Amino acid sequence: MTIGEVAARAGLATSAIRFYEKAGLLKPPARKNGRRIYGSDVLPQLIVIRFAKANAFTLPEIKQLLRGFPETTPASVRWKKLAGKKIAELESTIAKARAMKEMLESLASQCRCRKLDQCAQGFARRMSLQGSAARRSACC
What we know:
CATH class of the domain at 1-59: Mainly Alpha
Number of strands: 2
CATH architecture of the domain at 1-59: Orthogonal Bundle
Mean pLDDT: 91
């Protein structure tokens, strides 16, 4: 298949396929008369790449999934290793997002400042304090 045929079947731009090659996610294809010629094995690889990208895996993580294990390593083992790391990362992100949401809710309901300078003073005080007393109020 030519790069155009692969792109059409995979629902991608040809530039994305060239980018994945350059990034090492796809093996360089054979060439005929200077044109890339792909085997049918490229389509499942592109589906895996699209799935992984849609689920917040980075390009280095996707490269590790595709090329960072011995070829005999089962897909399940690869996913288990990478998914475990990604889950821990997501849990951290979720915890930070919850804390941010609580802070913004507190700010929205408790701020009585008339000027942003007052907020800034409260924020500065809050950032210099440690412990739960600093967490109760966003700025006031």
